[in-house]
Amino acid sequence: MISGLVLYLNRDEAIWSETLDALTAQAEIAVGQRYESRLPVVVESSDGSNARDLTQWILDLPGVDHLDVTYVDLEEATRGENGDG
Asked: N or C: which end of the chain has fewer CB within 10 A?
């Protein structure tokens, strides 16, 4: 399962570095280029439960006010498991 998210960082720029470090340390998360207080990320998860857990983990990070889900591909994990993708 692939999810595209836009994170909205709070105004405390001092903790953005800590937030970015935590995100980039996760193999399942690819971090895009920050634009003002918005940060695009892509999350690759094994299933819906794992996707929810990762999303909640992101929301609990210091510096993240909220996020928007912009894209979800439910078939990505299935394609890889079946060997047809």
From this structure: C
